[in-house]
Amino acid sequence: MRIVLHIWRQRNANDKGRMARYEVPNVNQEMSFLEMLDVLNEDLIARNEEPVAFDHDCREGICGMCGCMVNGVAHGPQPGTTLCQLHMRHFKDGDELYLEPWRARAFPVVKDLVVDRGAFDRLVAVGGFISATTGCAPDGNAILVPKEKAELSMDAAACIGCGACVAMCPNASASLFMGAKLAHLGLLPQGQPERYGRVAAMVAQAKAERFGACTNIGECEAVCPKEIKLEVIARMNRDFLKGSWTGRGALRDDAEEVSKKPLAGSRR
Amino acid sequence: MSSIAIQPLTRAVRFYEAPIGKKAVMAVTGIVLTGYVVAHLLGNLQIYSSNPEQINKYAAFLHNPANAAALWAARGVLLLCVILHITAACQLWLQNRAARPFRYYKKDDVPNAYAARTMICSGPIIAAFVIFHVLHLTSGAVVRLQEIGPNEPNVRANVILGFSHYPAISAFYILAMGLLCLHLYHGVWSMFQSVGASHPRYTPMLKRVAAIAAILILLGNISIPIAALAGWLTY
Ligand code: HEM
Ligand code: FES
Questions:
Q1: Would you say the ipTM is above 0.85?
Q2: Number of structural domains chain B divides into
Q3: How far away, in angstroms, is A166 Cα from ligand 2 center?
Q4: What residues does A135 pair with on adjacent strands?
Q5: What is the 8-class DSSP label of residue B150?
């Protein structure tokens, strides 16, 4: 089948960028979306043109590297699916697709469809950890975790950090991502010591990274390839408010240092 | 992560600096304002009482000098809530716009969530309406108000004349109530999410209850100008 692509081309972070039109005449239904882009790129290379840069790694929907907007929807039209797991059988012959990079102040474009998601790394750096004794492996079942909590925590831990939530959110908010990390750790006994400090630090860091705020619209939930639910955002709000109210860890004095500027390594 | 206790004032500032803190302020002020909207509607529905004097008696009670302190306290709280609600809304709106400086060439809205997306439009129009409404039916700056005696406004006459003689005012009223309905359609469930109450079983129910409440408030409010225009209410 034949697919017409309009792809955002941008040489580097300082380039203005533009949409460019390409045709891929020989798309096979069994191809994944990224394989279709590979075919396009081989063709471009053969014609001595610059191939389209896009992020990818595992191509099996677990690493979180891939992703772009396809006709205004993050990761394309198939719910619960990363771009690498999206197959061309979901499209029709002659379809015109618009491919754009994630757009957010916090995610500067590196090249074409590749954006710098370092802001996510810095969010995790300020709170996405637990204080555990390292060394030997802990005894199995030494710490009991109720089944339901373990399940909810695992659901949140499914987040692969692809950034689709930020890309889709009208406010470019990272709330779903943060909520996922906070629920993942905050639901487990091992995550309790830092629970309230973690949420305060992440919320402050997200603001410093220039992510927006949540307006409870739910676009993030609709496109999340791991189907993380808005409930994790409520959980984050609850922990933040509880921490602020009790003054536990939350809003601690040294929050200032982490919150005022993006950590080292930022491209801005 | 230290847990050093910090000054209450610093704590309050830090709390408000965070978007979640601002949303909590919006939720709490939103619930106060929604409570007022419901109370105000219930007060107004007395116009349908079989006793035509009922609503004027209610007005006289509110305007009784003995209740002046309580009345002004309530007005003060409402004004404070409106100011806080609008301030937080504008600050968040600016932050959110700055977070996405480049628009998408193509962008789908999934879910549609019309009410949620237009909160920043419905809000200010409601605010403009509230100012007009106070000038119209409380202070009498738009049309001359009738009184039965000092501190005893003839509310029944003012409402019925105010609507039936000025279809444009009625139209603005109905429009504003439509927008208030949209605002509450999203706001009434959103405020629970903002303060962290969400549950896979109860939140879908809550959304339905919020929608029904918003529509009932709309119907209750617009029934009055419609009844006045249709001549079903007399004084
Ligand atoms: C100038 C006037 C107003 C403006 C600009 C305004 C704006 C907003 C905005 C932007 C939100 C945030 C929605 C979100 O983030 O999801 C909101 C929430 C809300 N508003 Fe208003 N609003 C106004 C007046 C009112 C009034 C008069 C009421 C009550 C009758 C009200 C009730 C609510 C409620 C209950 C919420 C939900 C709070 C939350 O999401 O946590 N608002 N408003
Ligand atoms: S490439 Fe790893 S998730 Fe798509």
A1: yes
A2: 1
A3: 17
A4: none
A5: T
